[in-house]
Each structure stands twice: as C-alpha cells, then as structure tokens.
Amino acid sequence: MTDRYDAIVVGAGHNGLVCAALLARAGKNVVVLEANDRVGGAAVTREFAHGYSVSACAHLLYQLQPEVRKELGLSPAVAAGDLQTIALAEDGKHVRLAANGVEGVSSEDAEQYRRFRKRMTRFADLLRKHLNRKPPRLGTKSRGDLFSLVRLGLDMRMLGKNEMQEFLRLIGMNIHDEVTERFEHPQLKGAVCLDAVLGTHLGPRSPNTIMTYLYRNAGNHGRMDVPKGGMGSFSEALAHRARSAGVTILTGMRIQRIVVDNGRVTGVETAGGETFSSYTVISNADPKRTMLDLVGARHLETGFARRVRHFRSRGNAAKLHLALDGLPTVAGLVKKDFEQRLVIAGDEHYVERAFNPAKYGKYSPEPVVEMTFPGFRDESLAPAGKHVMSAVVQYAPYGLEGGWSGASKQAFTDVVIGTIARYAPDVASRITASELLTPADIESEFNITGGHWHQGELTLDQFLFVRPFAGASQYAMPLDGLWLCGSGAHPGGGVSGAAGRNAARTILEREKQA
Amino acid sequence: MNRQEVHQGRLKSPFHSCLEKLDSVNEWHQWSGYSSPNELYCSDTEYFAIRNSTGVFDLTPMTKYRITGPDALGYLNRLVPRDMAKVAPGRVAYTVWCDDNGQVIDDGTIFHLREGEYRLCSQQRHYDWLLESTAGFDVTIAHETEDVAALAVQGPTSFAILSRMGLDGLENLKYFGLAHFDFHGAELLVSRTGFTGDLGYELWIEPGKAEALWDALFDAGKLHGIRAIGTHALELARIEAGFLAAYEDFLPADETVRTGVSRSPLELGLGWLVDFKKPNFNGRRALAREKREGSTWRLVKLDIEGNKVAHASYIFPNSRASGDNIGFVTSAAWSPVCKKNVALGTVKAPHGKPGDTVWVEIYYQREMHWNRRMAKAVVVDKPFWAPARRSATPPGLY
Fold first, then answer.
1. Domain count of chain B?
2. Which of A209, A397, B2, B332 has its CA 20 to 30 A from that of A36?
C-alpha cells in the first residue's frame, strides 16, 4: 500500500509547480511527478554544446503574472531587463521599439505607436484581469458563472462606450489590418506583426491576431526580461518555493497512465511501474496527452473525446541555438545592443509570406526570427569571451511534408543562418556549434503534443469559455478528481503561472463547497 | 470500410421483386435510401394480418452495423446506457444511445450474434457517431445494411409458418433470443424480435437467398393467412405496442437545433435501460444529474375516451383547456384490436403519472367542417397491446 497524497501533479512545468506550491500552502500533501530529469517543463536551461547553455524552449520572461510573483514571493534574477526590440533593416537603419515608444521612424509613426500602445495596454489590462480567474461557463445557472460573465461585460463597459466598441471590433481582427492602418515604416509594421504571431500557427492576416498580441502584453505591459542563468534558474527557484512549502518533487517519473477506477481517478502509474495514489490528479501535461494517452478515450464520453481530438495543437515555431566564438557584426548596431532582442521581420508582408508555405506543410524559405544573446550579460551560459544565440524561428510546421529528418533540419538551419547573414554577414564564420529544435523535437523533449507553445492554438474558438474545449473550461475534467493546470487550459501559454494558479484556486474553492 | 461507389437514386431491396408482384396500389416512400411500401393492397387488411394471422414486412432498409473486435463489449458498454455484459451470446437487447448530454440519439436493438460479435440495428444511420466512439477501443464497425436482407414475420401464426418451413428447434427460442439455421446452404439468422408487440420473428439472410426465402416462407404460410404488409399497418401495430419511433415520439438529439426539444431516456419512460452501476457511458453524468434534479418531460401512454383520433393534440390538465397546455400527442391511432382510442404523448413533469387524468384537445373534420372536442384521457402504465403469446415459450401453433 503506497501513501495516498492529497494531490498528484503530473509534470513539473512552471504551471504544475505554481499549482503544487499553492496547494501545499493550503495544507495539502502534494507530489509532483516529472518525466524529464529536471524541473521546468519548457522553461529549462540546458547545455546544447560543450560549455554552451541556453534556455532550451521559452527564453524570455514577460508574462509572469504579478499575482503569481507576489503570492509565491518570486523575484527572478535578471541578466538583462526591460529589453528593447530592435527590428533589423538590411541597410542598418533599424527601428527600436520599447513598450511605450519607438525610435528610428517618422514622428507621425512615433505618435501613432504611442497611441497604439496606450490602447493595447488598456485592453491588455482588461484581459489580464480575466486571465487570472477561472472563466465563466456559458449556459449554466451557476451564480459564480453569471457573476464572472457580468464582470467581463462590466469591465468592457467601463472602458467607455467608444473604447468598448473598439475593443469588440479589434478583438477578433487581424494585426495586419491594424498596422497598415496606423503605421508607415516597414520594420515597425513587421515587428508588431511578429509579436502578434510568435508561437502560434497564425500569420498577420489570420483572424484574432490582435487578441494574441494583447495576450502577449497581458502580464507586464510588454516588459521582457532575460533571467539570469536562463529560464531554468527561474524554474529552479519556483521548485525551491514549492519544496519549502512541503511539495515533494520527483523527476525521471514518466507517467504511463492515470488510473481510473469506477468512473473516477485514483492515482497514476509510472513507466517504471510505480503507483502513486490520490483522488486528485492535476495534469500539467497538454489536454490531448492527458485525456487520450494517459486517461484513454474509453473513459470519456464520445462527444467530449471528439472535442479533445479536434483540439488544434500543431506548433509552428522552432528554436535555433548557436554557439558563437564572438558576436556577429551587424551594421548599425553597437556592442551593447546585443543584450536587446533582435528581430527579423521585414515588414507585414514578409511575415505573412513566411507563414504561407507553413499552411501547406513547408517551412519558410525566408523565416521570421527573434534573437537573443543571453550570454551577453550572463557568464554562466558560455565560456569567457564566447557567446550563445537563442532564437525563435518561424515558420517550421509540426507536420512538415515528409517529416522532420536530419537532412530537413540541416536544410532549415542553413535557411535560418542564411537569413540572419543578410543582416550579420559574418555570422556563419562565428558558429562553432548549433542545435535546431523543431516542433517535433519540442514535442518529444518537452512532452507537448504537437510541440505548440501554448499546448494548443490560441484562437477565439479555443479561448476563455471554450479553452481547451467546451465542457472543460474550469480546469475540472469530466472525470471525477481529474484537473488540468497547464497552458492548454485557460488562459494559455507563456511563462505566466496563470493556469497553475487559477487551477489551484479552483480546486481549493471546489473543496470548500463540497 | 471503404465504399467506392455512391448509390444515386433509390435502392431496391432484394425482396423488391417479391413485393412488386403483390403490390396493387403503387404507394412507396423512401426509407434510408430504399423504396419501402406504405401499403401493398389495403393497410387495414395488412394490419389485421399482423394481429390475426401473419404479416411479412421487408426490413432490409433497417440500418445494420457489425461490431467486432476484442473491445466490442467495452465499446458497446460505453456507447449505450444499458449493461451489455448481461446480454449473453444468442440474446438481443433493446436499447437507446445518448449524446454527452444524456439526450437520445436513437433507439434500436443490439444482437449478440456470437461471443464478442454484435449487430446494431436502428431506423436511422449513425455511422459517424459509431466511428467517433471507437477512439480508444480495439473494435471494428462495418456498415452492413446492404449485405443483409431482412424480413419481419409477425403475428400469431408466425411460429406455425416458420415451423412448417422446417426451422426445427424454433420452439425453444425465447423472446429476445436469436438462433442460426441453415437455409439452402446459407446461414439464416432468426431472432424473436419485432415492432408489433405480438408473437413474431425477424429473419436475416444474405441478399442472394432473399427471393428463395420469401418463396419458402409464403409457401409455408399459404394456409396460415400470410400477407405482405407496408409501413402503415406496421405503424398502427407499433403504437398499440407502445413502441417509440424516431422523428415522431422523439427527435434524434444530433439532429436538433434548439435546446430542450430532444429527450433523455428517463423522459421517454426508458429509465429501466439506464444502468448507473456502469462507471462510464455516453450521457451518464447528465443522466445522473437529471435523476437527482428531476426530468422536464415525461412520456405518456393515453387511453382516450371516444373514437376521434387525437393527432397532434395539445394536452391540458383540465377539460376547459384554460391556461397553458402541459404537452402534446406525438403518435395517435384508433386501435382496432384493443377497441380503444390510444396515443403516445409528451407532457411536462410532474404531470402524467400513471393513473392521472388529462384532457386532449382533438380537432377533427366532418364533411370539410372542423370540429373541436376536449376528450378525457387516462395515463396508462402498460402497453395497450401485449398478449401473453408474444413471449410464451414454446409459442402457440395457431
């Protein structure tokens, strides 16, 4: 007979750790079981070449919710804080974007950008409130659901009549239309488009890419930080908080199945044959993996199983890591600019053209790239005098025609390096090692079905009331004792902690009602 | 299975030539892509064949799915609310299946043909739903409607006819049982099932042997009053038996647009099919909630005074028809065999308990002029027609 835990959390991603820590704070005996050998899920630091380390998947901290920060007393050490975004231009006349201003554009563009950011910040703040509570279910008679629905309506109304109309107009709209209406400068348009589509299977002309832009800004008003020691050190700090709250964290524990007995979950079984018992199992794994692989469709109802299978979760963002024996040369940049975030996003058409082939299972011949050089202010990541580059590259579809192989990965790596070389001609000569993680690699390394940043596409049909799907929007799955706490649940991905925190609060609240 | 060819136009059942020979009114309708007779000469005569001798109905258009594989039982137990583990090989189970909201998609019968091998029969097509339900199960669903010719042989003399046809041992076949026989070198499946509430059987055979089976059957039945029948006669018989028909007494839940117009098994008087001891089946959570909180609707069988048929009548709690109605009639008929004015209807709970009196508002036409009448109706518990011979084993040699 094994010990019975008050709760088992499947997966030590940041949301799993946040959820576990908050439950332990409320007096629960919680165990977290992680398949990989280190905690953090997709927020980890690891070596990719001898002496060179990077944040292997997520590499910037910008969405960590203030509530999570406060409740768990987190203050991540920052190597480079409040990053600027430098949108590269081939002629060296780059555009520099900050949260509230932009340099390198006409005064008209600058004024438009200031207004744009003001409005987006206002709307993102509205959204943020609702990302940090469980979303209402539609069509129930529950007073809680009605109340939060009324709050959502009221919050919108409080924007004032005109702004509410704008909010409703913009929320389903695409970013392309908005940037072409407002801005002239190509790099400015491209950079804003890139922020809207990063980590999604969407192009600037895809619907609701203003919503994804808002989502990105709904944490810290768009402030981006590079954590010291990479994202892994943030996860370690989080795990430390959880452990000191009494959570047991066991790594190298791959869950084989979530045990269902007589219509409710009773625990989990690991690949190694170990059993952990609990009447509460909280899965930080993605909804498909949780419901179809770990639980099994036979324990679900047909309609629900259909919704799980149809959950869109095919990733389109790859990660490229380069070990560099020196910083590359970029016309128009000085050395200290390499602590900033550099993006290659041409203009709004460049981003859309990059997306086009991905719709048909091909990678972009001219990809969009978000580059950081985290070793610039952090000696722990590369040998003295050397550097690492961590880049998010789009688009690299999960379902590449013919599949991802060594050859196709090499070919895409060459494409990306060729693209970077248009701005940094000497980059190839600086490279001593490289690593490309396609969505397929992200799937297998981080156990995310489809290798999608958000565990599932962030679109209005998979958002708020219907995230991940109708009938499961409040973390509770239609199987007694089973919960989701990962980014596949409301509100979505990014290292925000919101899903984990909301799930923990919902579980505790439900317990109080029972 | 992969069907390359898409049939265009109406299909003809393998019994079509047999039916055509007997047909004198040329009244056909479309049923699941097949031509099916409304009546062949006179629906009254055909009806009386069911009740007094034997009526033969071409059942081929009935949708049939073969369900096989190691997980067939587990699959069915998740699909339907009834406990299929209790249905032994050689038995047939009537059941409904529901969506996640506990609303009835359709009703039908599941034949446990041989250990782990099942056939599901229903009036409507459900391939999509059945395939969707296979996720997580090692099971194969084959649509075999066109591969099986079927006849319903219903009426008091049906056993005598089939015995005369040479089906030895049929006397041991119990109500809702099935047995395999040899017919001209082919396997003939006989089940003691039907849609008439009377003694009767259903015969299932490969299409190539259909005409021979028909001839053998009608040969044997010559002195037992055998008659081919159409849908009108069958419809009357099924109302007397209190059986439900999709699109009449309930709407398939997957075809409704508005909420509140579909029905749960509890609302259709089929609570006995729902086994809450099973940990998971489609609709379980919703049905458990409904059982706790109470149903909205209740199916009623009505014994109505007078002889004016209560087609589509509103149902009221009192004779003045004041205030809101409490429901409406879904199927109605004058029952010749019961000599009763009967109907099936749906009323809002808590109305409609057995023994309750309600009032139906009947509109009827006499020489073009419309008349209205409030008729008193008693809610009855049992089917209007359920003779002992229906389930007697061995059956009578009438």
1. 2
2. A397
